[in-house]
Amino acid sequence: MQSLHPFSHLQFTMEERDKKKCTAKTKSFRARTPPHNNPQHQQHFIHHHHHHHHLFHLHPHYLFHNPPTNFGFLNQNQNLYPYSPPLLPLPPPQTTVSPPPPVVPLHHAHFHKPPWHQTHHQTALELIPRTINSTLVVKKEDIKPIKDPSPSPPPLEPPLTVARRPDSGGTEGIIIPLLANHFLVEFDPLQPIHQYDVEITPKPSKETARLIKNKLFEQNPTIFPTNPCFDGRRTFFSPTRLQPDPISLHIQIPLPNTNTHQEKTSKQFHIHIKHVSRLNGQDLSNYLTKSNRDNQQNKNHITKSSRDNQQNTNTLPQDYLQALDVILRENPLTQCTPLGRSLYSSSILGGSKDIGGGAIALRGFFQSLRPTQQGLSLNVNLTVTAFHNPIGVIPYLQTRFPFLNELSVNKSRSLTFEEKEQVLTALKNVKVMVRHRESIQNYKVYGLTEKITEELCFKDRDGEVYKVVEYFKEQYGYEIMYKGLPCLETSRRKACYLPMEVCVVCEGQRFVGKLSDEQTVKMIKLGCQKPRERKQIIDGVMAAPFGPSSGHQAGEFNLRVLKEMTKLNGRILRPPRLKLGDGGEVTDLIPSRHDRQWNFSGSHVFEGSRIGRWAVISFGGTDEQKSIIPKFIDRLTQRCEQLGIFLNKNTVVRPLFESMQVLNNVSVLESKIKKIQRAANNNLQLLVCVMEKKHKGYADLKRISETSIGVMSQCCLYQNLSRLSSQFLGNLALKINAKIGGCTVALYTSLPAQIPRVLTLDEPVMFLGADVTHPHPLDDFSPSVAAVVGSVNWPAANKYVSKMRSQTHRHEIIKDLADMVEEILNDFVRELSKLPKRLIFFRDGVSETQFQKVLQDELQAIREACRRFPGYNPPISFAVVQKRHHTRLFPADPVSGSGQNMFSDENVPPGTVVDSVVTHPKEFDFYLCSHWGVKGTSRPTHYHILWDENRFTSDEFQKLVYNLCFTFVRCTKPVSLVPPCYYAHLAAFRGRLYLDRTGASSVFTRRGPPKTAPLPQVRENVKNLMFYC
After folding, report:
1. Counting beta carbons within 10 angstroms of the beta carbon of residue 34, is it exposed (0 to 12), middle (13 to 18) or buried (19 or more)?
2. H or E stretch including 196?
3. CA 181 – CA 184 distance, rounded (Å)
4. What per-residue confidence (pLDDT) applies to 529?
5. Residues 6+ apart with CB under 8 A from 222
6. Torsion, Cα of 111, 113, 114, 116 (10° steps)
7. Exposed end of the chain (fewer CB within 10 Å): N or C?
């Protein structure tokens, strides 16, 4: 571990389309230490962490966020799906945390082990039962949760702090030299930074505020001997104290005017500047150096003192980091458009690309200061996002809506009600400027007029009534051509009408509409670079005149950013031995290919299901396509047989052929499926649906089959039936098998055999995964959907039940988590006749600004669920799983020397783990690239353990996660996301489908407070199966 000095000259140097989903290519629509009785052994002091992460996404949303403070902590970095913060966090005040209550052992008098346990002997290679014991050996009254009709509220608990790293990192695996896109930042801790509050009256726009700042410095060089850095809102940062204090000045700013012959008008602003504080970098230096010293002291030691002493002794100085962040962004902002933590420009990084539908794609770069084990580092990454195409409003609408193309020949065409709704959705809140007069002014579209332009009138200041068409002709000499279209409304308070044809979409506006499949493909191509190309682009940004360390500002503050990526060592974890079935026998294999993918090679799935009653229904398709159905049925049954899955060669009814129009009518669709169900004596196991193309009726089909009728369905597209390849049929068979209750693979060496210090065979563990999916960015009304999944078999831990709930619009904290976990615990007892001894909870979709709130609320909810079972208080581990971050790993020197890449491709190999140098200086986190990046640059998954009562070491938790990644049921390779989170994501998406109804309005406007529509209940014969796969 390198020790940190603010000016140590360390030689540290700085996406992917690895999301080749392991879904079926159907394009479906979707030995341990006993617990101590000493309470101090149970004590966990935890520290709050900040960790910037920002998603490379097709159209990310970035907002500056002022965090609430009523939670006993400060949010650091808002990143719900669309958000990214401007600042690093201020950890919570140091609070002595009461130790969690001691683990109370489960009273086994109430629970009998399943029969197979009675004569069981633990072995290193533990064979897993082929089926789950579903025989209830316990009495229901013994496991019934506590139901107090008027329960007293739980006692208030002190704020929790995030778990500290238990050691100095893992040691298992083969060392691999890497580069990370983190750049070491050297700062002088003795350099003061003076913070000033700036008040500008009247309040200007962000663009005007920067013009005012530039003019202010130009006209007053004696007051501003060095140019302070401006955050664009209310704060200046200066390396020297300004005199006098306060400063009060007036500035005249000329208004933009394109007419060079006309005298320019100007506007006066009053600027009041007042000194607020003197910031010192010593606290940041102490925080970083102490973190490194603590990690060195913890090296290779897992003791009571190092585990339980989790209270941080100093906090991260957010105000100083904010100042450094503003300084490093000052020069790039002169040439780029900011969007959250990223900056974009049409003149850099290859310019813009028209992706159709009124959108263009721009490359930009993300930059964020991060405290790491090597010190303060700047994370820089390539980003791509979609912007509105800055063209005329009517051409813009024509690229989005083909029905407007006829305007070129029929200029009097008007809009139907449905067309008008679509146009309003496309233009609402979009900024436009006018081109019918010389002066340039920007307007935000609020709505569309009820009347068409030809019939529209308004009153001038004298009360005289004018027709819009006549006014434009008399005042500007402009003849309105498209008189049948409505005008744009640009004010809520007064009548302000602008004909569409005189308006142009302003440049630099993020496109928030949903991208089409074609647009998505173009975006991915623009942002999909192999590691070498991505590294070259990032290095180019660091050396460019618009880069983070460009300009003179950094030098004035004694700030230096190294231009080389950070060098570090990662480790390649060994893949687990896997267990497959072979005609009733068990076979094993070790994935030895470079991508860790395996094939069955004559072997069967570990547990094959039996499907005797199934049917096929077709929607659309040509006669030639429909003729493939009999061959498809025959080939699918053969492929299932090869994999050890029984699929009856005969369907219960002859294939039904319906038109695509049936998918538009919910009642007709439901009647068709019910007819098939009746033909199967109301016991249909599987319905295979073949569609001509993707259709919004897919959501209705899933909702009807799973919540109304109670039948499992599997959809695929005709285009995938044309070749009937073995890979397609095999992937389809795996999905079907998982949905009916089978499983693809299991670990040959069980988790207890691999992690005996923590896990044992006779003390089952439940893995939980949770995720929340939110509505489309334009939808400000629909509820969010939360999903929680839990494993219900042990030690295989590869079968999961799911619970879904709708909740308040865009609310990230899972509201009904206690009830959902309680239901899953009951399901676990139903299968294994005992409660799990340990709970390991993986939470997806949480940004670092939400760590403290999620930990405080959701850990308490899990504990509340456990308290509903008498005497039940298992140790809980709580880990946040993040994919939306900007850390990328590159093989170091892939051609020669010790850095030679072990594979021909440039991406890091599966199993690459990093838990040093670029990880948090204090807290328990690591990056794991568990998958093989097929396209682009692999994005590692970031695991951050917020709470750990099970006391895992780094090696143990990393091995646990990597092993689980091989057990995903839908494919034969390790996935990038730990399966509990993957399943929770799929389940949440399924819940979202339940809310999507055919015929619902496509315009998302709030006509009242957001309402939470409850999700329909999944039928009993479906809910305990993995129907969401």
Report:
1. exposed
2. strand 193-201
3. 10
4. 92
5. none
6. 180
7. N
Distances (CA, A) of 596 to 102, 530, 589, 890: 41, 20, 11, 19
Cα 681 to the center of its chain, rounded Å: 43
* Cα R_g (the chain), whole angstroms: 31
Question: What φ, ψ does residue 361 adopt, rounded to 5°?
Answer: -105, 135
Best mean pLDDT range from 51-55, 338-342, 958-962: 958-962
Residues 6+ apart with CB under 8 A from 330: 229, 230, 551, 553
Contact 516, 479 (CB under 8 A): no
Of all residues in the chain, what percent carry a pLDDT higher than 70? Answer: 79
Dihedral of CA 599/604/606/610: which sign? positive
Strand partners, 876: 839
Q: How wide is the angle at C-alpha 984 spanned by C-alphas 980 and 988, nearest 5°?
A: 175
Q: Taking the CA of residue 211 as centre, how many other CA atoms within 13 Å lie in the half-sphere pointing to its CB?
A: 16
What DSSP letter does each residue of 757-803 carry, written as one string? TT-BTTB-EEEEEEEEE---TT-SSSPEEEEEEEE-SSSS---EEEE
pLDDT at 73 over 60: no
Tokens of 247: 């400063």
- Taking each helix axis as running N to C, give the angle between helix 282-297 and helix 318-330, from 0 to 180 degrees, rounded to the nearest 10: 110
CB 1016: neighbour CB atoms within 10 A? 15
Q: 123-166, pLDDT tens digit by residue?
A: 333 434 434 443 334 444 455 555 544 455 555 567 788 999 99
Q: What is the largest CA-CA distance in the chain?
A: 98
Which of 65-74, 237-246, 546-555, 768-777 bottoms out in mean pLDDT, i.e. has the lowest? 65-74
Q: Smallest Cα–Cα separation from 427: which of 494, 355, 497, 513? A: 513
pLDDT, residue 312, reads 43
* Contact predicate 877/840, CB 8 Å: yes
Specify the long-range contacts of residues 667-675, CB closer than 8 Å, at least 24 apart.
Answer: 669/697, 669/700, 669/701, 669/704, 670/704, 670/708, 670/709, 672/617, 673/617, 673/701, 673/704, 673/705, 673/709, 673/711, 674/709
User: In this structure, which amino acid lies at residue 527?
Assistant: G
Phi, psi (degrees; rounded to nearest 5) at 172:
-75, 150
Specify the pLDDT at position 72: 36
Reference 582, options 550, 561, 608; nearest CA is 608
Task: Examine residue 244 and say whether the peptide bond preceding it is cis (omega within 30 degrees of 0).
Answer: yes
Residue that has been written with the tokens 């983070």 in this structure? 548
**CA distances from residue 870 to 35, 37, 144, 293, 824 in whole angstroms, order as listed:** 19, 19, 9, 44, 16
